[in-house]
Design goal:
Layout lengths: L1 H22 L1 H20 L1 H32 L4 H41 L3 H24 L1 H13 L29 H20 L6 H10 L6 H11 L10 H14 L2 H32 L4 H18 L1 H11 L1 H21 L2 H4 L2 H29 L5 H22 L5 H31 L7
Length: 466
């Protein structure tokens, strides 16, 4: 499941990164629609969808819908007019956002149930089992994301090798390859054929991974039988038989309305969730700044106009690589010094990215050191967002409010990302950078206030509310 999920989702992140490079403002709008539908689905429908389809069914359906988003990318590239290109991009982004809205909830349920069954089968402490499974998933997820984002480099290398054969000596006949021979036509005017091949290849990888997802274990059914046959010596045979039959578990009741009410009610019940929202918004606007301004403008138009797809893939892969590598050091730092220093480092990194884009113009950002620094700073911030930030929510809202709290992460991040992707194409670079800097500054102040409130509550357990 980890491998198939990572391949499918890795293709999505690769397309998300390349959409701005190859589609320009239409790619930005595509990403904006994706984030809007992501936030809306997560808050309004994810619980009902996972309940109706079951965990494996939701994984399979979500991965297939992701394929629609990925395949809309090459379709948009070969569209003959701007209106068709925009329509395809918007529809694809909307379908991808719906998929993301419930797919991650299904992945979390599959992970938690698998870890529980593994712990019971091997007499492993539950905490160790979840840590082992989390480490395995994180390694595969980030590792395959790096590989898939670097994929365009391999195709570019093959193209270069075919265009300049290594054994073509000085006496090669000019009759065989006349200088005036036109290059092979691309599928779309102005679009290199290799870029279209990359887009189609991502679609194929994603489809194969989605089809493979139908072979994973029906974890709901196995868990139900495990509970029913806890004292039955033939339980293992029952589990194997159920897996072979592929029987689906009974649908769980949906609770869409209850989830929406819980997420919004948490604003009054635990106001610290509002104070933490600027952290999620900062990640969203920073991601949009990196995608639109740095990748879409500096990399594509100034630094590497002829190899923008390859370079964008490598630099995006660098973000995932560094963010993954920092997970363990950040975990050790949080255990030693607390989560506050790590959170401040992450927010400072986002502010640093905004500062670079504010101080330097496009030509200055195109130099190797500041350009790579932009991606490294975002990687530090993403490492904090993906790890310590999630653990912070678990600490602050333990005891029944976890689901509503994590829904607020999706809401703040999704809305901020959507607004940024829609507005950044119309804004100057310094304005975009200022938004990131201000968001990070507000996030620091609000986070420190939330920490103070939370520590006061721990010191006074009898305190009610926030």
């Amino acid at each position: 499941m980890c491998i198939l999920f990572s391949i499918n989702h890795g293709c999505v992140t690769a397309v998300l990164n390349l959409s701005v490079v190859l589609l320009g403002d239409k790619g930005s709008f595509m990403s904006g629609v994706l984030y809007i539908m992501y936030a809306a689905t997560a808050l309004l429908a994810s619980t009902a969808i996972v309940g109706r389809l079951g965990v494996r069914g939701a994984l399979c359906t979500g991965c297939l819908l992701y394929c629609v988003y990925i395949f809309s990318f090459p379709l948009a590239l070969i569209a003959h007019d701007d209106a068709s290109q925009l329509a395809i991009a918007l529809v694809g982004g909307a379908v991808g956002g719906v998929a993301a809205g419930f797919l991650w909830a299904a992945q979390g349920s599959y992970f938690a149930t698998s870890a529980k069954l593994y712990a019971e089968a091997t007499d492993t402490p539950p905490e160790k089992a979840t840590s082992t499974f989390a480490a395995t998933f994180g390694m595969l997820f980030l590792g395959l994301e790096v590989v898939l984002k670097a994929f365009p480099l391999a195709l570019k290398g093959i193209e270069a090798a075919l265009s300049h054969p290594a054994h073509a000596g000085p006496n090669a006949s000019r009759v065989d390859a006349p200088p005036s021979a036109p290059p092979p036509p691309s599928a779309h005017a102005g679009l290199p054929a290799v870029d279209l091949i990359v887009a189609v290849a991502y679609s194929i990888f994603a489809i194969l991974a989605a089809l493979g997802m139908f072979t994973v274990w029906d974890i709901d059914r196995l868990s139900d039988l495990k509970n029913e046959n806890a004292n039955d010596p033939t339980a293992d045979d029952a589990l194997a038989s159920a897996q072979a039959e592929g029987a689906a578990p009974p649908p769980r009741p949906g609770c869409t309305l209850e989830r929406v009410v819980a997420a919004v009610a948490l604003w009054c019940k635990r106001p610290t969730v509002v104070l933490l929202a600027p952290i999620q918004a900062t990640f969203g606007v920073s991601s949009a700044l990196l995608a639109w301004e740095v990748t879409g403008r500096v990399v594509k138009q100034i630094a590497f106009p002829h190899d923008s797809v390859v370079v964008a893939g490598l630099l995006s892969g660098l973000v995932a690589l560094v963010a993954g590598a920092l997970q363990w050091p950040f975990k050790l730092a949080a255990n030693t010094f607390g989560k506050m220093p790590v959170m401040l480092v992450g927010l400072s990194a986002f502010a640093g990215l905004g500062t670079l884009c504010f101080v330097l113009d496009g030509d200055q950002l195109a130099h190797h050191v500041p350009l790579v620094s932009c991606y490294l700073l975002h990687a530090v911030g993403r490492a904090c967002f993906e790890g310590t930030n999630k653990a912070l929510y678990a600490d602050f809202f333990a005891g029944g409010d976890e689901s509503a709290a994590f829904s607020n992460i999706v809401l703040a991040n999704g809305l901020a990302s959507a607004i940024a992707f829609f507005t950044y194409p119309e804004l100057p670079r310094k304005t975009e950078a200022t938004v990131v800097i201000l968001a990070a500054a507000v996030a620091v102040v609000c986070y420190l206030t939330a920490e103070s409130i939370h520590r006061g509550q721990r010191a006074s357990p009898s305190a009610l509310g926030d």
